[in-house]
Amino acid sequence: MRNKIIISIKFVFFLVILILALFVRKKNYAEIPIPGQSLDEYSYSWAGLSLLESGMPVASSGIEGNKNTLYRYVNVDRFFQTVSSGDPITINYPWMDHPPLLGLITGGYAYLSGVRVFEDTTAYIIRKPIIIISTISVGLLMIYCWVNFGYYAAMVGGLIYATTPLVVLSGRMIQAENAIIPCLLACMICISLYIKRKNDYWLLGAALMAGVATLFKLTGFVCHLFVLFALLDKYKGFNKRFWKDLGFFLAVSLPISFLFVIYGSVWGLDNFKNILFSNYNRFYGIGPNSLIEIIRNQRLTQHKFLPEVSIISGWLIFLGLIIKKQKNIGVRLTVLGLFSYLIIYIFFGSQPYGWYTFPFWALLIILLTKFLTDGITKGKQLMAVFFILLTILGFNISRIIGIFEFQPYANLWRTGISGIIFVLVIKQFFKYKNNLIFKILFLIMLGAIIYTNIKYLNGINLDYWWQNIS
């Protein structure tokens, strides 16, 4: 009976975090990010809507391989303030820039909502499904942490991922990366359980998720790459068991991925190949400074940056982990997931578009969560743990009230930092093993970070977007 009550309480907290994640993503979702920052949001939905309405995907594309082109003023969400302003949108058919699944979800939702023309595909309608998808990602991140690091880590990771402003705002955008994230997390969960329980059903689940990921975008092949590395890590090389598992995995995943080729060949295989290779030959945005760029600057769109200390901290932890062998399966798999997507990111590009980096953030927050919770529960690197917490909290406060407005609180801030450092030094000096005081302090600081995350999000309106987000 007692165990059932504990499980019920844990499940309630799990649901509360999911509800919180949904709430912060839904508030002002149709206004911020401002519609039109990426035409892709409309293109995906137009392709799905037209496919359901007329049997052919029609949307906007800049790909040279498209032969059929129209020019139209589609004044959705006041994209054009007047019909005569700006250049018309290039409309192509059949649109096969990317696989159809995301368009079928967002465009299909618009169709079920009564939308029949492109002008009615407003952000208010088409962004609703992606909010659900990004909320599911929060749940999957918590499950992954729960499976590999325990319930406490799951709650901490869920709270951070649910409320980090950069993650929340990006989770409102109709980009295929937001659909690849839950597929990758689900794939990582399945592989974790397969390694622990040795049940082929979990490998089957990973294969299904990997196949589905590629139907959102070809970068979804990150799941295939991840499973390849995970199996190599499991079997320590190319032995018979490795080839058996890989063969089973590919026998399930590749036929699902091949559905995109079947879909494209409906309108002519040559036409499909022209578009595919034209897409491949687009401007390659990854330069020599790309690795520093993704660590230092967090892009939300092509031109908008929203720095996050939690993401930067995750990168630093990742860099520290890759130079030493990790015993924990969850940590190893997370590092392999990051390494897999880093390969995909460099191979496909494109640095100028923020959404290419979205999948990094979930995995970085998993590593950050593991680092923080290990520090509190095991007493590891407490100085570094509280330094990260203080930096995140201080950064949040400064961007909420501004540097100049922060000055009256400067002495209080200095006193708080000094107090924490003093207690940590005393602990190390006397080898004090009771971490209760640090657990309480951690929870207080985590609560303050979540509160300031939400407060900052509530303050982002149209004026703030243009004036303060560079």
For the biggest sheet, the summary is:
3 strands, antiparallel
Number of helices: 22
Tell me the strand percentage band.
Answer: under 5%
Total beta strands = 3
Structural class: mainly alpha
What is the strand arrangement across the widest sheet?
A: 1-3-2
The run of helices and strands is: HHEEEHHHHHHHHHHHHHHHHHHHH
Q: Separation of termini?
A: 54 Å
Helix content: 55-70%
Global outline:
globular
**Count of all domains:** 2
**Average pLDDT reading:** 87
Q: Low-confidence spans: pLDDT under 50, at least 5 residues?
A: none
GO biological process, one term: lipopolysaccharide biosynthetic process
Pfam family, one: PMT_2
GO molecular function: pentosyltransferase activity
Keywords: Cell membrane, Glycosyltransferase, Membrane, Transferase, Transmembrane, Transmembrane helix
Describe this structure in words.
The protein folds into two domains: 15-21 and 130-468, no CATH class; 40-126, no CATH class. The protein is built from 22 helices and three strands. With 470 residues, the chain is mostly helical. A three-stranded antiparallel sheet has the order 1-3-2. 68% of the residues lie in helices and 3% in strands. It has helices spanning 2-26, 40-54, 101-112, 123-126, 128-149, 151-163, 165-170, 176-197, 200-214, 222-235, 240-257, 259-265, 269-280, 290-296, 309-321, 329-348, 358-378, 382-401, 403-406, 410-430, 436-458, 462-468; strands at 59-60, 68-72, 89-93. α18 runs parallel beside α21 (436-458).
